[in-house]
Amino acid sequence: MAIPISHSELYGHRPTDQQFTELISAFKTGPTFISLAMWDFMISLSEGDAAKYKYLQGFFIHNLVRPDLRAQVLHKAARDSDAPRPIFGRWQLLALMKKVLLETTDDGDKDPRTDDAARRVLGDACLMLNDLLFPEEQMERLKDRGGTEERERIHDELMTQWLCQIELAHPPDVYQAVARNDEYFSIFDQPAAEFAFTDGQTLAQRFEHLTGLGIHQYLRLYVAVFALHSSLEAKHPEEINANPGVINFDKELIFSLMDFRQEEQDIFFRRVVADLPRLIQGVKKDAASARAWQFDFTTFRDYPLVAIPENPRGFTCIAFPFLIEKLASGIYHTILNSWPAGDPERDKFQSYWGKVFEQFVNDRLRDEYPPSTLAKRLYENPYFNRKRNRSIEVSDAALDYGDALVLLERKGGYLSLNEKYSDDASKLLMGVAEKFGMEKVIRQLSRSIGMIFNEDEGERDCFSERVKRRRPVDPFNPAAIRKVYPVLVVQDFAMTLGFMNRRLRLQFKQKMQEHRLRPQVQVRPLSLLTVENLENVLAHIGEITLPEVLDEYAREEHDPLTTFNGILDQYLRARGANVKRRYRWSVKKCAEVLDSIKERFKDVTEFSY
Fewest CB atoms within 10 A around its CB: which of 42, 159, 312, 324? Predict the structure, then answer.
């Protein structure tokens, strides 16, 4: 990530918070916020396209930077070089949008839609934010204070400070997320009483009772809205600038083409589209929390679509990554928040969600490693064999690769907002430890490896799957194993940051030092994967194996900011594989969802996939 051009770089001194607030306080809230949302959305649509990036930065420099600074900024931006630098970015614009809601009123006299001088002032505010987003006390925490633990402390600080940006830069794959969530709902709908709520209701019945809208209907309506927005990705920013109204949508016009009842439409839009007063109320509540202002966009994440003040039927997108996020982990939070705080069914849902996630992962592994009379590859929820150990689960799943054993654990929890965005490394580390760390995954995996491969033959134990009445079947023989790969699969996409994986690896390595193993066995570093990462590997099984990808992931020369998907893509390219291939199960499942949406259109509508 390139360092953005800042106010201090151009003027030789950092701006103060007071100077920034005074600068923006005269703006009119509504038109300023909507203008910033449009610019942020345009940057999101152009993500990953170098030509569009170059055009947009040039467009913003021309229209927002003061003429006396333009030549200097263009030189520093170096747009034609191999390492161009931005001046305008999504994080910065989101922060400015938040400050506009907090510090301006509709009585302001500056309107960027019609006032060129006002637009230049917004450009100054963006330059200031490129300093203020990196507070001096935050930079102080990155300095080496001396001592043996400093390297790890600094890495933990970097993890804390980069988490928000990594989330913005690496949103989940929408189509895989839609397929996954739709399958979760199907698992919840199974007739078994395991996932029952009040009066024996299923999740779908309970959600409809609480909200008035079916859960499958909610997902399909949101996918339809996403599809309309994603269709703009094919447009060049110049087209959007020539006709900015194209990124605004009329909810009645959209759903007049679809066979949804008016009541369904009204319920849906009340839940997903916020007007400015609701956003202002939300960001004020966020500002009163213990979370760092520059990282916390909770209200924008809750409501990625905003009503246009002058048009009660119109809405536009605040931030495309947040719209994508709502179709991934946002579905979980939408369902959870349908219950009021303190309702015991919230805890029940969270427990069920973790179990459904575990079933989903095992179902996908079973698809790729089906039972065979020739070889047993997948062991689901294996337990140890010895009588004294039969109550101990080895892991959630084990994969036998002949000379390699992969032990997988799954955790369906999510880091809290306070853990992620408080700018406090100790809170983040505590959240990681409680939900994914030492007392859960690391303890279980290290103990299991220690028991299976103990150097003392008399202390060793092996495992089997269990069938009815917990009778062991298909005992595993570890004699040929030379490498062991511990793997943690999670749902929380915040965990995709390389620093997270590094931290858990260090904890696992430390815990493994308590065990003495057979000398022939090498235990590889722990690998942290999101469920999307796992799906992306499964898409290429046959061309590659999971152990060889995990070996590549464990190489120490990878930058801690690198994500698993980035490393996997490089690995696939080096082997001439198709990097863009999606997991075939996800393709089929998402196609079914999209087909069900098209059936609701009164006229034929095409979705790209």
Answer: 312
| Structure tokens, 580 | 């863009």
274/154 same-domain check:
no
Alpha carbon distance 159, 423 (integer Å): 10
- Judge whether 184 lies within some domain: yes
Looking at the fold, whether 62 and 13 belong to one and the same domain comes out as: yes
Full residue range of the structural domain in which residue 320 is found? 171-348
Residue 431: in which H helix or E strand, if any?
helix 425-436
Q: Which mean pLDDT values do the consecutive 10-residue runs of the chain (609 residues) have? A: 90 97 97 95 88 92 96 91 90 98 96 96 98 94 89 92 91 94 93 81 92 89 87 91 88 73 84 94 97 96 92 88 91 93 93 94 95 85 93 95 96 94 95 80 95 96 83 89 97 88 90 96 96 97 94 81 90 91 94 85 52
Per residue in 248-284, pLDDT tens?
888 877 777 667 778 888 888 888 899 999 999 999 9
What type of residue sits at position 381?
Answer: N
3-state secondary structure 358-394: HHHHHHHHHHHCCCCCCCCCEEECCEECCHHHCCCEC
Q: Rounded CA gap, 550 and 540, in Å?
A: 14
DSSP string, 185-222: HHHHTSSSGGG--GGG--HHHHHHHHHSS-HHHHHHHH
Helix (H) or strand (E) run with residue 261 in it:
none
Overall pTM surpassing 0.85 (yes/no): yes
Q: What tens digit of pLDDT does each residue of 472-482 get? A: 788 999 999 99
Q: Tell me the two tokens of residue 91.
A: 């994080």
- The count of structural domains within the chain is 3
